[in-house]
Design goal:
CATH architecture of the largest domain: Alpha-Beta Horseshoe
CATH topology of the largest domain: pyruvate-formate lyase- activating enzyme
Number of helices: 14
Strand content: 15-25%
Length: 454
């Protein structure tokens, strides 16, 4: 791409606006690393960029709207830059985006990321028509997840162990976007984990659509616990956090494993989605309020100091006041440390899409938004009460950033996952982002903790 005249230092600058989940972030890191091999220089200043990627989320309607709004905002601000729509939205709706957004210079899917360099070279030759590419997955042996820059705060990194999903939940478009489950080769995951530890990463966050499904695409059996043991056997001073385990496939053997290995953080992200059996069945979930309460009880009996996060969906087709009361009481009874909630999005191609008309869906959404506010208010109270249990105790805090002009830093204790939970504000001096410091927790402030460096 002949863009040198746009920059006084004769460098080609790349800017990536990443949206969506941690899996999307890893994709963005891989894209950046690949393009850097072609001489692109990653920048966090979009005004310097010759090339901009909007790495989109396509999971639900609100995420798609944010993705499109972000593209047009960047397009209007930086008319001379080449702008590519990438990520989940590009993978699922490539042809529609190319037809409806001629302002985009390219549409690039999220499966075989190794094709990005040839894709960008082709864009450089075009003056008008957008380049569209929706690659399929590469051969597993060619599955390279090289990363130079990590887009999260220092000291922490996400490690993706698989792509896609075989669960086929009734509401979920992820298999339509990312395809069926494709577990990464164990050797490649371990190689990447070792590299992260060598780089000084203190917290490795394992991510997938369902961690426990790892390897089931090979022989029908989960190989997750074997993989996890191999990761924690790596020498080094680091912790492993587990993000997302499907409640219907939770491996109870994991509890003993965590008891016997302090490298594994006793933090469980289990998106239960609802408690009403009437709704869970068309969601293609196997549990109910009693089954899922029993799972939570078993986890807490084995690991009394554990932290559990869940996600609840409101407004699924057919949800009544009685269904809502069930899930409200379920949350009230189980007292999850953290809970996220969202309103059901009617996604084409999913089982649930045909359960309502657009008119019925819109009417239920309005009710669901009111229910969501009440449920979140309950959860905020529960979270604040749970956090009181950390006050007066000492914890290691991973520092993420310093507060300019103050003797303060922002970080997280083991009970706080990156980006989705609260934070710990630490009072003290001489702290470095990416390092861990022993701190005493002094108080709860909303969903955050306050602490003093010891």
């Amino acid at each position: 791409m002949d863009t040198k005249s746009m920059q006084s230092d004769n460098k080609n600058y790349l800017y990536i606006e990443n949206l969506g989940c941690a899996k999307n972030q890893v994709d963005a890191e891989v894209l950046a690393c690949s393009l850097e091999k072609d001489g692109w220089v990653l920048t966090d200043d979009a005004s310097k960029a010759n090339l901009i990627f909007v790495n989109t989320c396509g999971f639900i309607e609100s995420a798609r709207e944010e993705s499109i709004d972000t593209f047009f905002s960047l397009r209007n601000r930086f008319p001379k830059a080449k702008i590519v729509i990438s990520g989940c939205l590009a993978q699922r709706y490539a042809d529609e985006l190319a037809a409806q957004i001629p302002e985009a210079d390219g549409i690039f899917g999220n499966r075989d990321l190794s094709k990005v360099n040839d894709f960008i070279r082709e864009i450089g030759k075009r003056k008008n028509a957008a380049k569209t590419e929706v690659p399929e997955y590469p051969d597993p042996d060619e599955d390279i997840f090289e990363r130079n820059e990590l887009f999260n705060y220092p000291g922490s990194a996400f490690l993706k162990i698989s792509e896609g999903c075989n669960h086929r939940c009734g509401f979920c478009a992820i298999p339509l976007i990312r395809g069926s489950l494709r577990s990464r080769p164990r050797a490649k995951i371990l190689e990447e984990a070792r590299e992260l530890v060598e780089r000084g990463i203190r917290e490795i966050n394992l991510i997938a659509q369902d961690l426990a499904a790892y390897g089931t695409d090979w022989d029908g059996k989960s190989h997750f616990l074997e993989l996890l043991q191999a990761i924690v056997d790596i020498e080094g001073n680091f912790k492993v956090r587990l993000l997302y385990i499907h409640p219907d496939a939770f491996p109870l053997q994991l509890l003993d494993m965590i008891k016997n290995n302090d490298k594994i953080i006793p933090y469980f992200d289990i998106p239960i989605q609802h408690a009403s059996e009437k709704l869970l069945r068309p969601m293609k979930r196997m549990g109910d309020e009693n089954i899922y309460t029993d799972l939570v009880s078993k986890i807490r009996a084995a690991l009394p100091e554990c932290v559990i996060r869940t996600t609840i969906m409101l407004g699924f087709p057919g949800e009544t006041d009685e269904d809502y009361r069930k899930v409200y009481d379920f949350v009230k009874t189980n007292r999850f440390n953290w809970m996220g909630s969202f309103v059901y999005s009617r996604e084409e191609g999913t089982y649930a899409y045909g359960l309502t008309t657009e008119e019925e869906h819109n009417a239920l959404q309005k009710v669901a938004k009111t229910r969501q506010k009440r449920l979140q208010k309950l959860q905020e109270k529960i979270t604040a009460e749970c956090l009181q249990g950390f006050v007066g105790k000492e914890y290691d805090v991973l520092i993420e950033e310093l507060v300019e002009g103050e003797d303060l830093a922002i970080g997280r204790i083991w009970a706080q996952a990156p980006e989705v939970d609260g934070l710990t504000v630490v009072m003290g001096r001489d702290m470095v982002p990416g390092n861990v410091y022993r701190c005493g927790v002094t108080k709860v402030n909303g969903i955050d903790l306050e602490a003093v460096k010891l």
